[in-house]
From TrEMBL:
Protein name, UniProt field: Netrin 5
Pfam families the UniProt entry points to: EGF_laminin, EGF_LMN_ATRN, Laminin_N, NTR
Organism: Cynoglossus semilaevis (Tongue sole)
Disulfide cross-links: C355-C367, C357-C374, C376-C385, C388-C402
Chief site of localization: secreted
Listed PANTHER family: NETRIN 5, NETRIN/LAMININ-RELATED
InterPro entries: Laminin/Netrin_ECM, Laminin_N, LE_dom, LMN_ATRN_NET-like_EGF, Netrin_domain, Netrin_module_non-TIMP, TIMP-like_OB-fold
One Gene Ontology term, aspect cellular component: basement membrane
Keywords carried by this UniProt record: Disulfide bond, Glycoprotein, Laminin EGF-like domain, Repeat, Secreted, Signal
């Protein structure tokens, strides 16, 4: 037994060496082979990169010492670049082309001075995401942020909206290191979403850069006069510039190497490809590409073609129809196979063309060889995908032959049209028609809640222009009751927070509500969003109504005026007709302003 134990121990050690020693561990995979989130090496992206220094007035600096800013910097190799000194008030601009996209963590500048600078400071740090075509500021440093940049002195973004905007602060006191004073900028410090960086595309774009630019702005003469008696601009001398970060590999690579052209590219894992591992490699199109996160590595998945094809494509329609499990569609199936997965066999005398799938309604031209069922697009149904599914109607685009029917609050709009009975007839609102209404109110909607088949609106009646003889409507808070179906169809269409002119009749379909004392607005009510210039006209109608100038309705009269025309429900769009009309009512000349309504709400005339 002792020897057997030793033999088993030796075998296990040999197996351990084979697994862990001869195969170095890949950070992008767990020990059992499962993919995991990984990051490329953290480097100084500016190391060895030639720096372009230019002055807005003096032009490009041709001094060879500019390369000293990004060389090896240590106590045994202290170099210093000094800008040409003069009285010009231009700005010095230092640009570092990084050559590819990096996710920047920090940018640091080391000055040659050993002590704290006494002169005012005015520096901007900018980035470019498109190799220098456009620039965006990331940070400003100044002794007078408000005066130099129009920004408050601030080190922390107050909101998530502000976290991708440049802040301004006074960098003093600077960090003291061996060789000089250091100004360091951290791209994520003071950003509210920094703790959730892997799930924040906004911050991921914020730290992404292909080029970095540092601008030393001229100091105003007023500031110079308070700091020094000399009008000469402050002396600029830098010894080191660093840009710390990682190659932007989107969590799918642990290494970033130079290719044959000298360009840095990610060594992609998880079957991803591209300089930034931002696409899936060929044949791994079963899922859409996603950035890897610590909780979801999101590797690219191979298409399922059962060994009958080595080419496929991704289809978002198929992916959604599969419940987001897979969207790969195999192409050029071999071995007499067909279908999305090349798993349906057909003989030479029975080809896939026998499916007869509709060219627009089906995805592809293959089907289930047993049932003949084609794979339909969204909203399409039928064995051959030749008709729209319930809840859909025919569209105009060949890419979406069937589109979902529009609904309002769950009600089909086509049903609403027949229910609301629209009309495009114009009706002139003058004193005569105004007097036929039971109530004309200016109301503000403050809230709403459901109550069985009704919606109860909390309203504030601001002005009562007219009420019926039996109503008890007064200015102040009230409840307005609207049937569920009427509100769903938009007759009337009401929105909380807005002010409306309500025009209705007590002799409508539902009277005054679930109880006789409640005010109701239904499909026979006209609800118009309030316009302030209506008030004088309506007050004029109200004044004439109080003076007894409203015509008397005689139910014995016959004719369309008091029957069909004024009993029909009409759909209006509001139009005001300016001008004055003379009308003779009861032998008197009445001067009134005419109103003409055209609205998508129903107006029940009595």
């Amino acid at each position: 037994p002792k020897y057997i134990y030793r033999i088993l121990l030796m075998c296990s050690l040999v197996f351990f060496k084979l697994i862990f020693w001869t195969s170095p561990h890949n950070p992008c995979y767990h020990l059992d082979g499962r993919p995991r989130h990984c990051m490329s090496e953290f480097i100084n992206a500016a190391y060895g990169v030639p720096v372009n220094a230019s002055h807005s007035i003096q032009g490009l600096d041709r001094d060879g010492n500019v390369t000293a800013l990004t060389d090896l910097h240590n106590p045994h190799n202290l170099t210093c670049w000094m800008a040409r000194r003069g009285t010009e008030r231009g700005e010095w601009v230092i640009t570092i082309p990084l050559g590819r996209r990096f996710e920047i963590t920090y940018i640091s500048l080391q000055f040659c001075q050993q002590g704290e600078p006494s002169d005012p400071i005015s520096i901007s740090i900018l980035k470019s995401m498109n190799y220098g075509r456009t620039w965006k500021p990331m940070q400003h440093y100044s002794s007078d942020c408000q005066g130099n940049f129009g920004l408050p002195t601030q080190t922390v973004a107050q909101t998530r909206h502000q976290e991708t905007e440049a802040l301004c602060s006074d960098p003093r006191p600077l960090q003291k290191q061996r060789g000089g004073m250091v100004l360091a900028f951290s791209t994520l410090d003071g950003r509210p979403s920094s703790a959730d960086f892997d799930h924040s595309p906004t911050l991921q774009d914020w730290v992404t850069a292909t080029d970095i630019r540092v601008v030393f702005h001229p100091i105003p003469k007023v500031a110079l006069s308070t700091a020094s008696v000399s009008p000469v601009q402050p002396f600029l001398a830098l010894s080191d510039l660093q840009v710390g970060g990682r190659c932007k590999c989107n969590g799918h690579a642990s290494k970033c190497r130079r290719d044959d052209t000298g360009r840095a590219v990610c060594v992609c894992e998880h079957h991803t490809a591209g300089p930034d591992c931002d696409v899936c490699e060929d044949f791994y199109f079963d899922r859409p590409w996603h950035r890897a996160t610590p909780t979801h590595p999101n590797p690219c998945i191979a298409c399922e073609c059962n060994g009958h094809s080595d080419k496929c494509r991704f289809s978002m329609e198929v992916f959604q129809q599969s419940g987001r499990r897979g969207g790969g569609v195999c192409q050029k199936c071999r071995h007499h196979t067909a279908g999305r997965h090349c798993k349906r066999y057909f003989s030479l005398c029975f080809s896939a063309s026998a499916c007869h799938c509709h060219p627009l309604g089906a995805v592809g031209h293959w089907c289930n060889q047993t049932s003949g069922q084609c794979l339909c697009r969204e909203g399409v149904t039928g064995l051959r995908c030749n008709r729209c599914a319930p809840g859909f109607k025919q569209g105009r685009s060949p890419l979406r032959p069937c589109i979902r029917k529009l609904t309002v609050w769950g009600v089909d709009t086509e049903e609403c049209v027949s229910y609301c009975q629209p009309s495009q007839v114009k009706v002139r609102m003058n004193l005569e028609t105004y007097c036929l209404k039971d109530y004309v109110l200016k109301v503000q909607l403050r809230g709403m809640e459901r109550s069985g088949p009704w919606w109860q609106f909390s309203i504030l009646i601001q002005t009562v222009f007219r009420t019926g003889s039996t109503s008890q409507v007064r200015k102040g808070p009230h409840s307005l009751w609207v049937p569920d179906r009427d509100l769903g169809c938009g007759c009337p269409a009401l929105h909380v927070g807005r002010t409306y002119l309500l025009i209705g009749a007590e002799e409508g379909e539902r009277g005054w509500g679930p109880e006789e004392s409640r005010l109701v607005a239904d499909r026979s009510t006209l609800a118009l969003q309030w316009r302030e210039h209506w008030s004088p006209k309506l007050r004029g109608f109200r004044g004439q109504d109080k003076r007894g100038r409203c015509p008397t309705y005689n139910p014995q009269l016959s004719g369309a005026k008091h029957t069909g025309v004024f009993r029909q429900r009409l759909l209006f769009r509001l139009v005001w007709l300016h001008g004055k009309n003379k009308k003779t009512i009861a032998g008197k000349n009445v001067l009134n302003h005419s109103l003409c309504f055209h609205s998508f709400f129903f107006f029940h005339q009595c």
